[in-house]
Every structure is written in structure tokens, then in C-alpha cells.
Amino acid sequence: MSWKANIFLCVGASLREILRVQKSGKNHGGYHGETIDIRAVLRAVETAAHTHGWVSETFYEAGGFKFFALHRRPEGRRQKAEGRIYISTGIHGDEPAGPLAALKLIEEDRWPENAEIFLLPCLNPAGFTLNQRANAGGIDLNRDYRQPLSAEVGAHIRWLQRQPEFDLTLCLHEDWESHGFYVYELNPDGHAPLGQKMVEAVARVCPIDLSPVIEGREAKGGVITPSLDPAARPQWPEAFWLLQNKTRRSCTLEAPSDFPLATRVGALVAGVKSALAVALAG
Ligand SMILES: [Zn+2]
């Protein structure tokens, strides 16, 4: 389906908003859109997190960057969490909407009351300074989780191994080739599906990619439910490690990076909020 058809899926958006949300058409062979000053974004993330009572833990340092995890306990602080949610982003340095979405979510501070949140706002800061997918050494970190070669992923896994199990994990990404937002949903135990509701929520702010095949995989209404056999895959993305070790429910959100950055940030924020609402409703 073309982007022209897709834009009419922007349910509830005004005509002016719809006309503004168009593909730029400038991303060929890679991402050539807006970039961010990742150091400034991460400083803003830390400031906002401190303001709203998150605890920050640095688990690795390299290249002048701190890799940190943020932890927010449920409100009331003594309550038991109903849902333990893990959110990560910034593993691909040419996908700026993810760290910005993390910042927006922390600044808005509208989390479900009884959720315990673990948030990793940037897993590949050096990649952002180069506006490249891989880390500074040329490794695609999101293919490095089976037998890690990179120090960053090694440190991330050691941090993860110290954490409890998660009820849901969300990995925030972007795709410069896509015609709209889409989501990979890993849900082997048949929990209430999150993908379709997420797409409905995101469609209010961003076009959805309704292609029948996305990235070589069968898709339905913007949702890809990959057939699961991590053992058969030589290279693991973060979501596979999480599914094998820490969760039974994982979504990878993909914002369309040929669209304006603000639209993509809005898409990821709407997707996260929808997933939390559905998952915590049981
Ligand atoms: Zn990505």
C-alpha cells in the first residue's frame, strides 16, 4: 500500500495534520533525516529522571559515555508492582526517535500507577555521534546477543542477568524503509495480543505500514508475529535474548524514519502507552 493510502489511516487527525505527515522521500540506502545531539538528550533524560524520582544505575562506561539504566518503582513505593516492564532503545545510532521518546515519556511522567519500569534510554551512544546503525567498531549490536562480541552488549547482558523477570519488554526502533509504523510481537504463551491495539493507538498520530510483507516477513495490519525458533537463528537481536531469558512477552516497535522526527517520536510514545495499558489490564 502506498503512503498516500496510508495517510488516510490517521484516524482523528485533522486534514492539516495529515498533510503534514508525509514521507520525505529522502532516505535511500540509509537514514538521512534529522539527527540528535545524543549527549544533550541523555543529559536531559537524566535530569528528568532525577526530577521524577527514578534511580539511575551506570552499568558500563566507554568513549566518554555512561551506559545507564533507569528504575522507577510503583507509586507509594511500598506497593507491590502489578507489572514489571522493561523498555530499551537507542541500540541503532541512526534511529533518533527512540531516545527522544524515552525522554518524552519520562518528562510526561504518566505511568500506570502500579507499574515498575526499567528503562534503558540509549544502548549505542557512540553510534549516534556517527549517525550509524552499528557501534563505533562496526558491530550491529542488535545482532550480537547470542554470543556477544561487543563490550556494550556483554555489559548489558550482565546487567540484565541481575534483574528480575519482566512481564513485558518493549524495544523501540526505527526503519527508514517502511511506509509507516509497524510492530514485531513475540507472544509464545498466548497472552492478550498487544500489537493490534498498539497499531490502533499509533494510527492516531502516525501512518501505519499495511504492507503484506515487511522486512521479508508476513505482516497483518502492521503487526508481524515471527515464527519462533531462536535456536535456528545464528544472530540474536536483543528481543530474542529477552524472550529466552527474562520474559514471555516482547514487542519491537518500528517507527518509520522517512517521516518527520516529531511524528515518529509520537508514534513510539503512543505505542508504549498502549502496550502498558493493555498489558497491565491483564
Ligand atoms: Zn533498529
What would your notes on this structure say?
Helix content is 32%, strand content 20%. It has helices at residues 3-6, 15-20, 38-51, 97-108, 125-130, 151-161, 195-202, 238-245, 261-280, and strands at 55-62, 65-72, 83-89, 115-120, 168-175, 182-186, 213-214, 217-218, 223-224, 250-256. The protein has an eight-stranded mixed sheet, sandwiched between helices. Residues 1-16 have low confidence and may be disordered. Residues 92, 95, 142, 173 line the site of zinc ion.
Gross geometry? globular
Low-confidence runs of at least 5 consecutive residues: 1-16
Strand order of the largest sheet: 1-2-4-3-5-10-6-9
Please identify the structural class as seen in this structure.
alpha/beta
What characterizes the major β-sheet? 8 strands, mixed
User: Hey, roughly how much beta strand do the residues contain?
Assistant: 15-25%
- Helix tally equals 9
Q: What is the end-to-end distance?
A: 34 Å
Q: What small molecules does this complex bind?
A: zinc ion
Using only C-alpha atoms, the radius of gyration works out to: 18 Å
The helical percent reads 25-40%
Rounded mean pLDDT score: 90
Report the strand count. Answer: 10
The SSE string, one letter per element, is HHHEEEHEHHEEHEEEHEH
